[in-house]
Amino acid sequence: GVIVDPAKDAWGRKRPAIADTSVKVCVKPSASPSYPSGHATVGYLTAIVLSDMLPRSRPALFADAARFAESRVICGIHYRRAVNVDRRRIMSGHGVCRWIRIVQIVP
What we know:
By secondary structure, the chain is an all-alpha fold. It is 63% helix and 0% strand. The protein is built from 5 helices and no strands. The chain has helices spanning 5-11, 16-19, 38-53, 58-74, 80-102. α3 (38-53) packs antiparallel against α4 (58-74), α3 (38-53) runs parallel beside α5 (80-102) and α4 (58-74) packs antiparallel against α5 (80-102). It starts with a helix and ends in a 5-residue tail after the last helix.
């Protein structure tokens, strides 16, 4: 998607099943590069948005996002690094956005 395709194009990392034909997959892998994981990115972004609306549900929402990301590894579609880096990258970006709102740089 729009959010991860530029990074995928820049890194160009092959998916596990494409790099190693012995890797068993749950679904047919996309021809697009593996890194970063678009599904993991969407999962964590969704958790961020929903947890801002439902703060009490934050732990459960992020647990669901982590399971969603992990499923990409279990199914042989992504390397663990692709989903772990997404989590760290998105959460650090979210922290910056929250700080900007708090200090009212952006309304």
